[in-house]
């Protein structure tokens, strides 16, 4: 019986996760399996992988054939490297103690890489939330105009204002003088007019008196 190490689909539509199983190569994808070896969720960043390394190593050494995806998982988790070391020990390339030390060093380095990737992912999520929440970004300070230019503008404005005030004052004085002249002329005309009208009235009674005297 040929044994395959493959994925068994679980979960709902558009949200799958998988069990890593050892099953008969003739069984259907979601059918019976011999042993469950681990769990795989490709939707997380990075992907979540949990596997029984010793059980997977036993099946690989006994001739089980992994699918492409499961083979990538075994390589990522160090099962293939463990197989490589076991073959080296059998051939006498190095001792079992040396193989165990190399395996421990490999796992330590791999765990450090995985933790670094997880931290980067968390920081990326935090940065994205900050960008969406609308936190103000640091804006460069505005460029301030030189003080000398501002002073010159103020002086020009003050000079212009003084000139305008002087011109307005001169025009007001001229208008005031013209008004006073017109008023004086009008007063003179008014004072002359009653005297000229009163003279004829005074002359008329005299002529009447003369006429009465002659008749008498």
Description:
The chain has 216 residues and is an alpha+beta fold. It folds into two domains: 131 residues, 2-Layer Sandwich (S16 Ribosomal Protein, Chain: A); 64 residues. 64% of the residues lie in helices and 15% in strands. A five-stranded mixed β-sheet has the order 4-3-2-1-5. The chain starts with a strand and ends with a helix.
Number of strands: 5
What is the CA-atom radius of gyration, in angstroms?
Answer: 57 Å
Helix content: 55-70%
Say what the CATH topology of the largest domain is. Answer: S16 Ribosomal Protein, Chain: A
List the helices and strands and how they pair.
Layout (H helix, E strand, L loop, with lengths): L2 E10 L2 E10 L10 E7 L6 E4 L1 H9 L3 E2 L1 H10 L1 H13 L4 H38 L13 H69 L1
Short descriptors:
216 residues, alpha+beta, S16 Ribosomal Protein, Chain: A, 2 domains, five-stranded mixed sheet, 5 helices, disordered C terminus
